[in-house]
């Protein structure tokens, strides 16, 4: 069982930066793939970024590629999302998610259904 707690959200002007953190409980964090998703009002939850258990592989949605960076510190049981050049369309509740060890196929990291554990979310609002 893994419990996830996000932090770091807030209000920022367009062009600004925020760094989200997701602290995970449990001794097996280092074996979990981690992802960030977001959900804007009236929209479905969408993939933002993911990172393999080792941190050796990262994946990004096209809409954030080149602006957002996902990283992890397994010694601190924490995954991060550095968000730069923020746009008003990045406004959403951002969720951290964890997937236990399982076979990985092309496209595995992208679906909501691939992740077993979710945080409560943190609000990010970007003003124009």
Mean pLDDT: 95
Beta content: over 45%
Which range best describes the helical content: under 10%, 10-25%, 25-40%, 40-55%, 55-70% or over 70%? under 10%
Uncertain parts:
none
Strand and helix order: EEEEEEEEEEE
Number of helices: 0
Number of strands: 11
Mind telling me the C-alpha Rg? 14 Å
Shape: globular
What descriptors fit this protein?
seven-stranded mixed beta sheet; mainly beta; 11 strands
Please, could you describe this protein's structure?
- It is a single chain.
- The chain is 0% helix and 46% strand.
- It has 128 residues and is mainly β.
- The mean pLDDT is 95.
Summarize the structure.
The chain has 128 residues and is an all-beta fold. Helices cover 0% and strands 46% of the residues. It has strands at residues 4-7, 10-13, 18-24, 33-39, 46-51, 58-60, 68-73, 78-83, 92-99, 117-118, 122-127.
